[in-house]
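Submission sheet (multi-component)
Chains listed below:
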Amino acid sequence: MTRRTGMTTSRRTLLKTGAALGALAAPMLNARTLFAQSGAFNWKRFQGQSIEVSLVTSPRADNLKRHQKEFEDLTGIKVGLEVIPEQQHRQKAVIEFNSGKPSFDVVQMSYHVQKRQFARAKWTAELTQMLGDAQLTPAEWDRADVTQRGLDYATDDGRIGSLPWSVDYWMLYWNKELFQAKNVAYPKTIDEIVAAAQKLHDPGAGVAGVVARGLRNANVPVWTQLLLGWGQDTTTGTPPRLITDTPDAIAAAEVYKKLLKDSGPQGVAGFNWNESQSLFAQGRAAMWIDGVGFAPPLEDRSKSRIVGKVGYGVFPAGPKAHMSAMFGDGIAVTAGSQKKEPAYFYCLWATSKAMCNRLLQAGGGVPFRHSTLSDGPTLAALTVPRDWANCVAESGKIARAALPVIVPVTEFRDTFGTALTNMIGGADAAAELKRATAEFAPVLAKSEA
Amino acid sequence: MAAQTDGIVNAEPAKRPPSYRPPRYLSFIVPGLIATLAVIVFPWLFTVWMSFHEWKIGGSRHWVGVQNYVTLAGNQRFLEAIIHTFYFTALAVILPLVLGTFAAVVFHRNFPLRGVLRTVFIMPMMATPVAIALVWTMMFHPQLGVLNYLLSLVGLPPSEWVFAKHTVIPSLVLVEIWHWTPFVMIIVLGGLAALPSEPYESALIDGATPWQMFRHITFPLVLPFLVVAGIIRTIDALKAFETIYVISNGGPGTASETINIYLYLQAFAYYNVGDASAVVVVFFGIIVALSLVLLYVRQRAKWT
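Outcome: structure written.
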């Protein structure tokens, strides 16, 4: 037995240290190191070319920007990167695509808003062939590792028009301290959310039972998340037909109304995610229904008063189904680009395992990859609680797209969002949904004609 | 006539009057004319032409005649947007005019630190509308905003400000008042500085009270300046977009959706270019009609 002193090191200690260092170093491996495994794959075949990339301001874009030089060193392709806010990016993309000569070769797209619009106009290049070409896609990109939901999201009419990049599942954040103080258990069903919200709602103490988006347009995912509990979407069939005034849709809207009108904070009709986040982070709301991307600010002491007190729960089951609403982003090559292959290389790099691991570690998003959420070193380096990662992994198993795949998504959200806002003000849920359905039906019919 | 009467036809052309100039100068206005046609006339004609089409970006274009206008006339949301626009404009013009005039009368007097206080008072006017809107959005927060905290200090109940339908437009007007009252004050101060002193001396000799002097001397004399301020404020308030878009985005629901917000959504969120063009043409008609009324008022208010 080795005698331990301050200077001597046992074999076991060395092994442990080595493993720990390896674990720390693994996520830091750059794309060149990882892709170098592909051996014969020639990353330099488009060396000397330059591409233009257009992304939305977000942690996802920050992640790519931070490591851009690695891509340029790996491929010899020069990247011109443009990062602009979401609303402006959507307008710019549409206007430039419509001009026939967009200024970018690679573009970020949000599946829940732009998928059908882009696919219908064939604004993005078909990637199916390139994905199957070993000269253009290294084995390490590993298509089998990409989730089926991600691939489905990226596919329209059998055509893969983008690579799935980042997914947002909806969940229930809960304040453990407030729950404990009133001896309330984490809700397992939507009915239990309503009951818990009522118990925890304490306006005198400045605490709302629940907070969620009430603002027109932004509020629609809250309702569709609830609606998934009845196992129902907002449209059905081909061409899509609205099913937004069915008894189940009305029942989900009644829950939305009940939650926010009776147990929501004052002024919730004008709340978007940022107002909701502020309130929850200040410990002034017991539950918050929203996407999974808010753990980093909630666990940041400079922004949150509830660090270490946040519970991350998979969204509870409804009366007929248990699903988590899913939204997502992809990255695509523009159909009009003269540099499709170099642009495709950028998309491959952006959605590679290495970049996906980095994205999760930084708390910037959840990739559409199986391996990321089971990658030990990546999970070990997470800056947010493991509960959050577990919640994300579990939500992914029951995820379902929660907005209709149609061109006029924004009009859909505005029309039904207005109805939902009116409900918070006391309007009848059934009457509002019938009015909104009647108002939007001709818009949908015209768009799908 | 004289030549015909005499039976002689004078073949020489009649002499041109000495004031006549051949139209050679036309070549000098051609660049300006082309620029005007390109940047003003053509976009307008194109907008009118597009308003007769059904055209969604990314889709095909069809001629629909006046259908877009007919649809607009029956569109409840658009009609409500017109009402919201007038409601917002009326408040955002009248209140800064009243408060700006009051501030000008106060700052026209001599008192210690007047210059410093005047500078402080006009500072909001220099701020960027989007930055102002973002700050006010935080201040309006019903639970975490400073405004409800201030109300609580004086024992008043909290307000929902821009987060409730019935208070959203008055709350947005509050931002406009804060932002633009100094502008009215500057214009009225200019008017006050130009006033003659004799009428006031006569009024003092006759024993007039300060209110009587304001009502019968100051107000009629600064009225032309107020009308100018009113015209500029009306145009600004009709154009108001950033403040509303950033703070309420037309909500809650559509409670603060003005024509500008509606137009923006049609054009850049729904990509209904035909409908949006029809809205532009109707809005243009409204502005022209309002401008004519304001010009008429300005003519009436001129010093005679």
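Remark: Residues 1-32 of chain A have pLDDT under 50 and may be disordered.
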